[in-house]
């Protein structure tokens, strides 16, 4: 009876020991994915800020500039790309909408971001774009990979349409969470005019013909949950200028279009932190809690199986069995 029990326990020990790596290396890449229909809205503010008044063509101080960023999953497009890519793909139609203190539109930049649902690596397909311009992204944007590492990553900048390193600057505590802090600085770079201008009747082509150019620099900061790869906070020290402004009748050759320290609004920080805390438990179950738990359980079952097997073979019991066996009858002479 003990031997039978030890064999059953041994079978369960092997099962759980084999299940542990399967969860981590087989199930995790297939189950931990960004849903294709995800929708997310984030509101950021710069208080105070400097903004160009297009009626006077002068930069003025304002109380607030609001930036609304939306990410909307395009399920139909993702299914089309998946058929040719042979993997799970997410298509985000993103929009960065900037409005002044009066609620009027300052600029809006649409994007289409196509990436692998698990690794977050960019997937190059028709439609990948920024403000209507086709791009070929390298590196990440908006989100870090699951199980983010303590290293630099290539991060795509939508204004310059280029990628450059975003540097890991250490581990910090943010709202009770241990997060990785990343920082990227984009030096002054000439960038395209937005396709949608804040004044009706004026096109970017008309401004470009005057010889006026648009320049941009920013210091980008992210606090990232290393388990889910989701930023729980983001800030930018942002500045844009129009140069050669006198060619368009401006009083100065260089005029600030927008300058300010952009921060995520408090209510959105609270919401994102709560969401990330719930999601990270699911990732930890697949990568840590269950695999290590099954390994410990398998080791315990193996030890119990060996103990039962050893008890079933104790010398004392074998000797007792032999003593109880009747002696064979003597052979007649």
Written account of the structure:
By secondary structure, the chain is an alpha+beta fold. 31% of the residues lie in helices and 38% in strands. The chain contains five helices and 13 strands. It has helices at 2-31, 75-85, 204-209, 266-312, 315-324; strands at 39-53, 58-62, 65-73, 89-99, 105-116, 129-130, 133-134, 153-157, 162-174, 177-191, 213-224, 231-243, 254-264. Strands 1, 2, 3, 4, 5, 6, 7, 8, 9, 10, 11, 12 and 13 form a 13-stranded antiparallel sheet that branches. β11 and β12 form a beta hairpin. α1 packs antiparallel against α4. It is elongated and about 135 Å long.
Relevant terms:
333 residues; alpha+beta; 5 helices
Whole-number radius of gyration? 31 Å
**Shape from CA axes?**
elongated
Tell me the span between the first and last alpha carbons: 43 Å
- Structural class, from helix and strand content? alpha+beta
Number of strands: 13
Approximate strand percentage: 35-45%
Approximate helicity band: 25-40%
Largest sheet data: 13 strands, antiparallel
Tally of contiguous helical segments: 5
Q: Low-confidence spans: pLDDT under 50, at least 5 residues?
A: none
Strand/helix succession: HEEEHEEEEEEEHEEEHH
Average pLDDT level: 90
């Amino acid at each position: 009876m003990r031997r039978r029990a030890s064999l059953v326990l041994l079978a369960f020990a092997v099962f759980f020991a084999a299940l542990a790596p399967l969860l981590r290396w087989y199930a995790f890449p297939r189950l931990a994915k960004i849903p294709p229909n995800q929708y997310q809205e984030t509101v950021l503010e710069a208080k105070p800020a400097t903004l160009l008044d297009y009626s006077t063509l002068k930069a003025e101080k304002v109380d607030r500039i609001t930036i609304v960023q939306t990410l909307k999953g395009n399920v139909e497009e993702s299914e089309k790309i998946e058929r040719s890519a042979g993997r799970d793909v997410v298509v985000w139609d993103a929009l960065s909408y900037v409005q002044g203190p009066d609620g009027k539109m300052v600029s809006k930049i649409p994007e289409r971001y196509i990436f692998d649902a698990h690794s977050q690596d960019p997937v190059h397909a028709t439609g990948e774009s920024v403000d209507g311009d086709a791009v070929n992204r390298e590196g990440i944007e908006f989100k870090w990979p699951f199980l983010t590492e303590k290293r630099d990553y290539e991060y795509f900048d939508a204004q310059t349409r280029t990628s450059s390193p975003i540097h890991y600057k250490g581990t910090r505590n943010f709202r009770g969470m241990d997060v990785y802090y990343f920082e990227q600085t984009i030096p002054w770079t000439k960038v395209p005019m937005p396709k949608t201008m804040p004044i009706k009747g004026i096109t970017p082509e008309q401004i470009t013909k005057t010889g006026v150019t648009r320049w941009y620099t920013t210091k980008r900061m992210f606090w990232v949950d290393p388990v889910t790869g989701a930023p729980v906070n983001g800030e930018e020290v942002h500045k844009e200028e129009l140069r050669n402004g006198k060619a368009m009748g401006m009083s100065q050759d260089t005029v600030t279009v927008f300058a300010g320290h952009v921060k995520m609004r408090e209510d959105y920080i609270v919401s994102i932190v709560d969401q990330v805390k719930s999601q990270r438990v699911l990732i930890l179950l697949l990568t840590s809690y269950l695999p290590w738990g099954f390994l410990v359980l398998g080791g315990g079952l193996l030890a119990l199986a060996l103990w039962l097997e050893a008890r079933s073979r104790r010398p004392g019991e074998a000797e007792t069995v032999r003593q109880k066996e009747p002696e064979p009858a003597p052979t007649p002479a």
